[in-house]
Design brief:
The chain is α/β, with parallel strands linked by helices and 300 residues long. It folds into two domains: 187 residues, 3-Layer(aba) Sandwich (Rossmann fold); 34 residues, no CATH class. 41% of the residues lie in helices and 22% in strands. The chain has nine helices and ten strands. A six-stranded mixed beta sheet has the order 5-4-3-6-7-10, sandwiched between helices. A hairpin with a 6-residue loop joins β8 and β9. The longest helix is centred in the last third of the chain and has 25 residues. The model has no long low-confidence stretch (mean pLDDT 81).
């Protein structure tokens, strides 16, 4: 699905987000985006003894072995950050309600985060996955880079009938492409064939990784709207179903809950910070909530 001709230009999209999202974030976070965008830091500074609730990923195992007690590395945050967006643009990301689609939510998230980063002198790049990793946008700074990302995401053509999404291929590409320690935003619905947990864990060891999962309420609760033709976004398979059947809606809900549990468990095992954003949720509130979670985690 490419953007329709009547869709707003990248400049208008960014103006809307500047006015309705970023200005509100400026007020609510008072300009302190450190807890939202910056994590454990990028430059090694010192060692100290492990304290309860410290992130075990910060343990220096060589020093721990010598001292016979756990030690963790402390970091100083770089003034300049390079951030990468690993973006899932597979067919399931074009699902949504009349109000909005997951692709539209993805564009707003990417544009907002890229704008926050670049206006402070940082650089952003992206890897785009449709049916495969289709494009790499080198990391650059400035407002023009944000506009370029918006334009590419709006114009991206969703493939027709494609192989099942392999999120692992996108994450593996990230491992190969991103050499210097960076911020890595993985934005997807995480509906994929198995195998993405291992490369996600590997990315989390090398970089500061934030997984942003985009969902839609209709993926969990099927509305009672009569007989409809449903199509699997990944395979193209079509089937008529009667949504008036309470037992069918109950089975649909149970299957969706099992999928949610599996995805949440995989993200937890990978050990990366995660934000779930629904298409019917206010983006500002979601980002403020996420910043609060990260702030509490860092102060433990």
């Amino acid at each position: 699905m490419s953007v329709p001709p009547s869709a707003p230009s990248p400049e208008r999209v960014l103006q809307r987000l500047d006015w309705h999202v970023i200005r509100r974030l400026d007020g609510l976070l008072q300009g302190n985006y450190r807890t939202l965008l910056y994590g454990t830091g990028l430059d090694f500074a010192d060692l100290r003894e492990y304290q309860p609730e410290d992130d075990v990923r910060a343990i220096d195992w060589n020093v721990t072995a010598r001292m016979q007690t756990p030690y963790v590395r402390q970091y100083v945050e770089d003034r300049e950050i390079t951030a990468w967006f690993l973006l899932d643009l597979s067919p399931s990301m074009d699902f949504g309600t009349v109000q909005t689609h997951k692709r539209a939510a993805l564009i707003d998230v990417v544009a907002t985060l890229a704008r926050l980063l670049t206006r402070n002198g940082n650089r952003v790049g992206a890897l785009l996955y449709g049916s495969r990793v289709e494009r790499a946008i080198p990391a650059r700074g400035g407002r023009l880079q944000v506009l370029r990302l918006i334009d590419l995401l709006q114009q991206h053509e969703a493939a027709g009938q494609t192989p099942l999404t392999s999120l692992g291929a996108l994450l593996e590409a990230g491992l190969q492409t991103i050499k210097r320690r960076s911020m890595v935003f993985i934005i997807s619905d995480f509906m994929s064939t198995p195998g993405w947990e291992r490369p996600l864990t590997a990315l989390g060891r090398r970089h500061e990784v934030l997984a942003l999962r985009i969902t839609d309420p209709s993926e969990l609760e099927l509305p009672d709207i009569g007989t409809v033709l449903m199509q699997d976004a990944e395979t193209g398979e079509q089937l008529y179903v009667d949504t008036r059947d309470k037992r069918f809606r109950a089975r649909f809900h149970e299957a969706a809950l099992r999928r949610e549990v599996q995805i949440d468990a995989s993200l937890a095992r990978a050990g990366v910070d995660t934000l779930t954003l629904s298409t019917d949720e206010d983006l500002v509130r979601a980002l403020v909530r996420f910043a609060g979670v990260r702030r509490r985690k860092r102060h433990k």
